[in-house]
Amino acid sequence: MKALTKTEFHFNGQKSVYHGKVRDVYNINDDLMVMVATDRISAFDVILPKGIPYKGQVLNQIAAKFLDATCDICPNWKLSTPDPMVTVGLKCEGFRVEMIIRSILTGSAWREYKNGCRELCGVKLPDGMKENERFPEPIITPTTKADEGHDMNISREEIIAQGIVSEEDYKVMEEYTRKLFARGQMIAEKQGLILVDTKYEFGKRDGKVYLIDEIHTPDSSRYFYADGYEEKLAKGEPQKQLSKEFVRQWLIEHNFMNEPGQVMPEITDEYAMSVSDRYIELYEHIIGERFEKAADSDDIAKRIEENVNSYLKSRGF
After folding, report:
1. Which candidate, 138, 230, 144, places its Cα nearest to that of 183?
2. Would you say 125 and 113 are in contact if contact means Cβ atoms under 8 Å apart?
3. I want to staple 84 with a disulfide (CB 3.0 to 4.6 A). Which of 64, 93, 196, 294 is the partner?
4. Domains along the chain?
5. CB contact set of 68 (below 8 Å; sequence gap of 6+)
6. Could you read off the pLDDT of 103-128 as tens digits, one per residue?
């Protein structure tokens, strides 16, 4: 099975590299970033031992399409996608906050609500809500970006009071978050989907706030199918959703939630290919176009290095 799980590139002008859970980010001369979406997959804060073919391409191309479809709302970091698994863009100084916006009470917000919580990140929640019910209007529940471990919930007031982000910049991020989410919901609706919640990351360059990283991918967002949503809500049934939740559920069924003493189940080639098929299905539903697999290549890393260096050379690196 061909999957890219490790990168050790040497790009023109490269100064450093950061290896994330899924993406590896190369710093080009403190000016540009080369973001490689690998085929690694993570769940419960652990990287699974086998890569998922075409997953990196799926994530990279969804993010690229949504960055292009929202560039009239706010400036973003993307310059080019010289390879199906790579985006090259402007290096920005990232804010240490993730802007999470939710339109429906589900996931971790529902778990807290069920336990009696009626205020999330400084946002008051109405009484009497059901799981998967829409909020009167989308709510923003930011988290601080942790270098290690879990991100922590934080309120708008705490972010500003602690000087994590200035009030002026936070207002800009908040406005962009609401507008980007509204656009994402509109695009999803055309595909028969509901954009339930998502996260955005922002950075600053030359005094201006930019949208950075990924946007509206199944790794950073949750989608429900619109068809049947109301009926399932009325009956209290689980919603049919598009996200990587199915991988988490598979791990739970195999007694793995990354808790002490638990052993990672074997990821067979067959299972990895079934996850690959699901990611391709996600792409086609979210984008509304047939997924074109990248030209088959014996050496994915070699293809990427050649494509990226060719692009960087054209920019004088």
Report:
1. 138
2. yes
3. 294
4. 96-185+199-218 (3.30.470.20)
5. 78
6. 999 988 999 999 999 999 999 999 99
